[in-house]
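ugh finaly. both done.
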Amino acid sequence: MKKCLEIESENMFSIDEMIVPYKGTKAGSLRQYLPSKPHHWGFKIFVRAGISGMVYDFLTYTGKSTFDTGQGPVKDLGVGANVVIQLCKTIKNPLDCVVFFDNFFTSLPLIVHLKESLGLRSLGTIRKNRLKGCTLEDDRGLLRQGRGSYDYWMDNEAEVAAVK
């Protein structure tokens, strides 16, 4: 992992999960089952990669002990958000970087936390249940308005926007 951190990095990153295939039985609780992946059994790894596909940092999922690294998780943000924060801490020049992630990781408090604590810009798809205090037009309403319709919500104080 230290060698990954020594590589001169890009300024656009994607954070996602991947699985390293393993069919053995000696790994105990480290071996995970992910039915949505091509290889269902293996080691679950969270990865921060550049747009070129180069891996710059990773975190092996070990269950509850995943964040027992001394730095600890940020309370109330959830596992996905804590993974993103942990992987973003190793970005060398966060003010010049953008991080992208999917709806497993994204929440409005995470985006605000990354901006305030690391100065990091981020973009992600988000689940409806994580849009607390943010009201957007429902799918049916946008369909009635026709193709190209959209709705947005902005918080100028936190510098966050949600677009549907």
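ok and the 2nd:
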Amino acid sequence: MLSAESAIGAFPEKALSVLRAASERMESWSREENMQRHLPQYQLAIALPDRISEQICTSAVEMANNLAVDAIFVYTKHGHMASLLSRNRPNPPIFAFTDDANTRKSMNLYWGVIPLQLPLSNSMDDNFKQTIKLLKSKGSVKPGDSVLVVADSDLNQPCAATSSVYQSIQVRLVD
């Protein structure tokens, strides 16, 4: 009934407000009761590199939840690892950084992902410093926050050109 009201009814804003409140209440309950661990996680990948990415993201979300980090940063060219992180429903927000406009647009559809487009370098330290500076200025992170950092590729090479993909998980503190 509410979906029809929001689509063609006289009070679409009110209908969306009720839908949002119900969704937020269910999400909050799910987090409080730790229901994410009951969601079945079927293997999506067949090839070994993709299975490794799935395992890295599953482990990263488990780490983020167990360590109660304040945010997850993922640096991605095509959004693949942001998608895998999202499917595991972590407690902290996922900030996904890419230098590709189309990837940023598509990541808007991922659960819990806040996509940001900016130029990225091959140096993960430089990328981290740049993104921390940006998010501090927006008030999204503050000194003393802990951040789990996930990286999925050599960011300056096209996907087909990367013979070895650099994948990592790090926990860093914001200065």
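summary for the 2nd one i guess: The first helix runs from residue 2 to 8.
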